[in-house]
Amino acid sequence: MQGNAPAPEILRFRASRADLAALVKQKAAALGFDLCGIARAEPLDPARFDRWLERGWDGPSISYVRERRAERLDPSLLLPGARAVIAVAASYAPDLPEPAAGGELRVARYAQ
Q1: Is residue 31 part of a domain?
Q2: 35 forms bridges with which residues in the sheet?
Q3: Is residue 50 assigned to a domain?
Q4: How many other CB atoms are there within 10 angstroms of residue 78's CB atom?
Q5: Domain that holds residue 61
Q6: For the chain, give me the number of helices (H) and strands (E)?
Q7: Structure confidence at residue 111 as a pLDDT band (50, 70, 90)
Q8: Does the reported pTM lie above 0.70?
Q9: What is the rounded CA–CA span in Å between residue 19 and residue 8?
């Protein structure tokens, strides 16, 4: 495979966008991801991202987010010719057993 040319097996595969999206999401689940989303690779409105930065939600340990603002807002700067962006997420929360019926539960202070 050279450059951005699709793999030969993809060239033979004819399916709707919905079918391809379903296949991608199934593969992500099979690989252990909890979430998978697909969006068009088009420039984003910078106002929302800038508000996120102003609130300090990027934190000092991920300063690269702020440093690569342009690529965050326009995927074509990172991968020219891209038509879609696939994002996956994996939960880092441990699998906990369900609490017993009628048992006592605690709510985090910030959530009260």
Answers
A1: yes
A2: 89
A3: yes
A4: 13
A5: 8-91
A6: 6, 2
A7: confident
A8: no
A9: 18
- Convert 22-31 to b/e letters by CB count within 10 Å (16 or more is b): eebbeebeee
The pLDDT of residue 10: 55
Both structure tokens of 105: 């539960």
Structural domain count, the chain: 1
How many C-beta neighbours within 10 Å does residue 50 have? 12
Mapping DSSP to helix (H, G, I), strand (E, B) and coil, where does residue 36 land? strand
Is 106 among the domain residues?
no
CB 41 within 8 A of CB 84: yes
| CA max distance for the chain | 61
d(CA 89, CA 36) in angstroms, rounded, equals 7
Q: What is the mean pLDDT of the chain?
A: 85
33 is a domain residue? yes
Q: What integer is the mean pLDDT of 74-93?
A: 93
**3 state SS of 27:** helix
pLDDT the model gives residue 13: 63
